[in-house]
Description:
The complex is a heterodimer of chains A (142) and B (155).
Chain A: E1 15-23, H1 25-35, H2 45-50, H3 60-75, E2 81-88, E3 101-112, E4 117-126, E5 129-140
Antiparallel strand pairs in A: 1-3, 2-5, 3-4, 4-5
Chain B: E1 18-19, H1 22-31, H2 42-47, H3 60-72, E2 84-93, E3 102-115, E4 118-128, E5 134-144
Antiparallel strand pairs in B: 1-3, 2-5, 3-4, 4-5
Amino acid sequence: xxxxxxxxxxxxxxxxxxxxxxxxxxxxxxxxxxxxxxxxxxxxxxxxxxxxxxxxxxxxxxxxxxxxxxxxxxxxxxxxxxxxxxxxxxxxxxxxxxxxxxxxxxxxxxxxxxxxxxxxxxxxxxxxxxxxxxxxxxxxxx
Amino acid sequence: xxxxxxxxxxxxxxxxxxxxxxxxxxxxxxxxxxxxxxxxxxxxxxxxxxxxxxxxxxxxxxxxxxxxxxxxxxxxxxxxxxxxxxxxxxxxxxxxxxxxxxxxxxxxxxxxxxxxxxxxxxxxxxxxxxxxxxxxxxxxxxxxxxxxxxxxxxx
Lengths: 142, 155
C-alpha cells in the first residue's frame, strides 16, 4: 500500500486537516440505499420518535465513514488503513430542513508505532456534542 | 427481556459469497460523498498498488451486518430489534476489500450481557475471500435500549 505521508515527517501531536461533513435527509436516504441499512430511524421521524429518539438520526456508519475521510484524504491510499474503530456516543440528529446537520471531524497522531504505523485519534462533533468517542485508526505511512 | 446467555461463543456457518462489484463500490463512495479515485478509477487504484478499485474502509459493514442480521433475528436469542442501536464498531484489515472479491462472513457471538436494563450483544464477523485468505474482521456492538429511552448511540 502506498501512502503519500512519510512516517518520518509526522510526530505525536501532528494534526490532520480537519473537515466538516453536511448531512441532510437526502444524504441519509442515499446512504440507506447504498448500504442496505433501511432502519426507519434514519428516514421516518414518526418511527424515530416512537422508539424514543428526538428525531431522525444519521446512520452511525455514515458518521464513521465521514470521519475516516479525514484519515484517508491525509494518507491518499485508503488501503493504508489497517485498523479502525469507533464508539457511537451520541446520535447525529438530522432535522427535516435545508441545512440538516453538520459532522465536524478533527484528528491527530496519537502514537507512533513500529513498522511505519501510526495511531490517529479522531473526534467527531455535531451540534456541540461528541458523536464519536474512542475513535482510532491505525494507518501505515510511507 | 434478558438475552439467552447460552449464545456466547456460538458461531454461524459462513454466508454464501458476496461478490463485490465496481459499480457497487462507486455507489457506496458517492453515498458517503467520498471522491477518492481509488474507489472508482482502476488506474488510480493500481497506482496505489491495488489490482482493482478498492472499497472505502467501512464498506465491509454492509456485508458483515447482513450476516449478523441472521444472528440478531434468531428468535431464541430474544433481542428486541426495534430498540437496537449501534454501540461500537471496529475493523481490522489484512487488506482492503476490492472489486471482484467473493467474500464470505463467519459470525460469532462474543458477548451477551444486560447492563442497566440494556441488552448488549457483541458480534464478530470474519471476512474471507474465495481463496480462503483473511480480508477483514468486523466487531459490532449492538445495544437494545431499555424501554425508558437512553440518549446514547445510534445505528
